[in-house]
Amino acid sequence: MADPWTEDFTALGTASRSQLRPMAATRAHVLSHQETSKMRFFTNRPVLALLLVLAFVGVASGAAYAVNRVFLSVDPDMTAPEIEQDVQAQLDQAGIKGTVHADKSDDKIQIAIKSDDERLGSDLDVDVDVPNAGVITDRQGAGVRMELATVLTDAQQKQLMDAITGKVFTDLIIADKMADHHDTAALATALARELASHGFKDVAIDIQPTATTVRVNAPPVE
Amino acid sequence: MTDATHNWDELADLLGPIHDDVQLFARRIARSTAEGDDVFQEAVLRASRKLGGLRDRSRCKSLMYSVVVSVHRTRCRRSFWKRWVSSDERGPDPVGDDGSRWADESASARRATAALATLEPPQREAIVLFELHGYSIDEIAEIQSASVSSVKSRLVRGRDRLRVFYTGLEQPALLPKPATAEEVCRG
C-alpha cells in the first residue's frame, strides 16, 4: 500500500524541476559575488567585520614562518561552540595541533587558538564567511591579530585578551576604519597607550591596510 | 584570467554533472522555490571556497549536498527566517503533458512542501534524500555527517510525522504544528 504522501512527493519532484537555474546563472552569481564581496560586507556588517580578534597564544617568537599558508573559514552565524568545533576540525585537517576557544556576542567574535606550532602566527589566514554578503579575511582589515613574543601566564593572557577585546581598543579601530582619512601613526600610538594602561608597555603595533597586528614583547608591568 | 574566473572554472568541472540535482535538493528541503534557490546559491559560494581543501575530488558530490545541508540549517536557525518566508508561496505551475492536471499537481506539490515543513530539518533532509533522490541510508549518513542509526531514526520519525500530517488533513485537530525555532536548532 502506497504511503499517503507518494503522489504529493511525485508532484513536488516534478514542480521543483520547473525553471531550474542553468549553470550560466550560477556562474554569474558566483563571479559577481566574489567581485563585490568586500564592499557588501562592510556595508552590511561593519562592526562584526572589524571585531574578529585572533589570538595566537603560545607563539614564543615572532620570526617569519616560511611555511604554506593555513586558511580557516568562520561562519559568523554559527554558535560559539559550533565555531570552536568547526575551526578545530579545520586545524586538525591542516595537521596543526592547537586548542580553539571561541566567544561570540551579537556583534563580536573572538577566537583564541592556543598552539606551540610555529606554522601559526603570521601564516594563518582566516576568512569570515557571511551568508549572502560574501567573505572578508582578517588580512583585509577585518580583525586584530595578536602575537606573543614572550611567555605569559594564563592570567596575563586573559588580561591581554581583555584589553584587546575591550571597548576602548575596538572603538579606536572602528573609528579609524570608518574615517575618510587614516592616520595609522596616531592610531598605533592610541592603541599602544590603551595597552599600556593595562600594563602592556612593550608592544609593537603594525597597522597595514591588510592587517592590524599587535605583538607583545614582554609581560605586563604592574 | 582572474582568480575568480579560475576558481569558477575549477568548480564548474566538479559541479557541472551534479548542478541540477543539488539545486533540486535545495528546493525540495526549502519552504519555497525562491528560498531553495537562495540556499543553493549560498552553498555554491561556500563550496567554491572549500575547494582548495578538498583533496579527494570524488567526494565533491557528497560535499555539495553537505554544504546545502549546512546552509539550510543555518538559515533555519535564524529567528527572522520564519517570519519572512512563507511556506505558502505559489511557485510556477509544474510542467506536465496534460494541462488540465496542472492545478491539481500544483496543489499536490504545495501539500508535500507543507508536509515536509512539519519535520525538523535533519528529518526533512533525510526524507527528501531517501524518498525523492533515491539515496541509500549510508549515503545520507555521509551527507549529514551522522551515524547510520541516526539516519534510520530520522527516517522513521519523519515518516511518522508525515503520516500524522496526512491523517490530520482529514482530521484537522490532529495536525502537527510546524517545527519550532527551538526544534530547528536542536538539529
Please describe the topology of this protein.
The complex is a heterodimer of chains A (222) and B (187).
Chain A: H1 6-15, H2 23-44, H3 46-50, E1 52-57, E2 70-74, H4 80-93, E3 99-105, E4 108-114, E5 124-130, E6 134-137, E7 143-148, H5 154-164, H6 167-178, H7 184-197, E8 203-208, E9 211-216
Chain B: H1 3-15, H2 19-29, H3 33-50, H4 60-77, H5 81-84, H6 102-117, H7 121-132, H8 137-144, H9 148-170, H10 181-186
Helix pairs in contact in B: 2-3, 2-4, 3-4, 4-8, 7-9, 8-9
Order of helices and strands of chain B: HHHHHHHHHH
The termini of chain B sit apart by 42 Å
Largest contact between chains: A-B, 40 and 55 residues
Q: Tell me what the CATH architecture of the largest domain in chain B is.
A: Orthogonal Bundle
Q: Strand tally of chain A, please? A: 9
Q: Into how many domains do the coordinates of chain B divide?
A: 2
- Beta-strand residue fraction of chain B: under 5%
So, the CATH homologous superfamily of the largest domain in chain B? Winged helix-like DNA-binding domain superfamily/Winged helix DNA-binding domain
Shape, principal axes of CA atoms of chain B: globular
* Assigned CATH class of the largest domain in chain B: Mainly Alpha
What ranges of chain A have pLDDT less than 50 throughout 5 or more consecutive residues? 35-52, 57-69, 130-142
Low-pLDDT windows of residues of chain B = 78-96, 178-187
**What is the count of DSSP helices of chain B, taking H or I runs of 4+ residues?**
10
